[in-house]
Amino acid sequence: RGGGGGGGAGAVNPDAGAAAEFAWARERLFDEGLARTLFGFVQTARIATVMNEGGRETKKWPPVPLNTIEMQKRVNRACRISPAEVMKVAEELYNAGFISYPRTETDAFPKDFDFAGIIGPLTNHHVFGFHARALSAPSNRFRFPGNGGHDDNAHPPIYPTKLATERDYDAWRRDGKMNQIKIYDFVARHFLATCSLPAIAHKTTVEIEIGGEAFKATGVMIKEMNYLDVYGKGPVGGPRFDVSYDGWANNTLPTYAVGQRFEPTELSLAPGATQPPQLLSETDLLQKMENHQIGTDATQAQHIEKVVGERGYAVKVGDNRLRPTELGEALCAGYYRMGLEDMWLPTKRAVMEADVNRVALGQLDVPTGKRNTTTPMLDAFRDLERKQRMLVDAVAEFVFPNENHRGGGPGADGGGGGVGVGTGPGVDENLGAVRACAACGAPVELRKSPRGRGPGGGASFS
């Protein structure tokens, strides 16, 4: 099966009684006629021959100890709680003594950390205590946690500092503090997972041929769940968790031998189409900020809240995704048309953050660091003043696209190509409410500046 003219063969091994789905080795074709011709050959042949079978043991390793950015990303992904709310609740749990200090970049425990002192009380937890007991004597399946490579030399990774009893859970439920339960459970289960052995499986790939076309199926046979017992959906036959933070797709395959022949139970050719990339989630955005070294673990969530909540450049939609508003798109388009892409791309901010870090490390003097940041920003501001018509035009184009706007041709004032606010028919000097504020819902008004039109002849915003 596959999009864009893909195909596949569903197969059942009568001896094993287990189903396996094989994917077309070509993946997809964009020539429908050719795809249907090849599919005809497969339909005529019907019989599949196993050409190759190979497997190997593979391991899925536990997560490294928890720092702030990983906590925000993982909880946001699994529980749909915003990064800002994650930090708010985590600080409440810290102040109540349930978890360690939640603002840390460190993801490695020191060699002398008292693991037994933390794991011991968790053996009495009413849900995941079974795993804490497995890490303790006599089972002793403890493994020293991995090293994530980050240390802020101030705070250890985040871990549970005391057992939350059933009475604590009842109090949280009674007070409507369900996020306390979700985040405490995550911190405790993550800590236990880091102290656990890796999951082990046998990964198998089977290649078959039908009518001259190759197909392939890949699957795993899980041998030992280990850390996934507490970090996934729970052990088979044991406690099951409402929230899973990790997993290993249990796409098991029957046993095949090279040269074996069988008849697939289903053959299919499915039309499809290319798809645009998904909107970024808060987790995606946090990761991109981390990749560009923008902000710190304590401020990255605040940046997102400012962009979404305060300034209305984006709104949350669907499955916790971020969609740019008309205003957000207009600012990006306007900066791009003015040649000021650095005002919305992450590059300039990343350079500034890097210089701040170099100053802190003594690798760059403060005056040079200031100059590296202020000089290009002042240059950009002067360009913006000179070309303000282009920004006004872009905002007009995106915020109220159905009006008749004047196209701004190239000119000395920087009013370059685009669609702009003008004084022609259908456009008033004071435009009034043009959209609802993404943050509070109040009307956003576009008004003429009290000082009159600037050098670019555009309106100002308030």
From TrEMBL:
Check the record and name the PROSITE patterns matching this protein. Answer: TOPO_IA_2
Region Disordered: which residues?
A: 403-423
Which cofactors does this protein require?
A: Mg(2+)
Q: What are the BP-aspect GO terms?
A: DNA recombination; DNA repair; DNA topological change
User: Which reaction is recorded as catalysed by this protein?
Assistant: ATP-independent breakage of single-stranded DNA, followed by passage and rejoining
Tell me the ranges covered by the Topo IA-type catalytic domain, including all copies.
Answer: 1-381
For bias kind Gly residues, which ranges apply?
407-423
Q: Which family is it part of?
A: Belongs to the type IA topoisomerase family.
Report what the protein is called: DNA topoisomerase
Annotated TM spans:
none
Span of the signal peptide: none
Q: Which Pfam families match?
A: Topoisom_bac
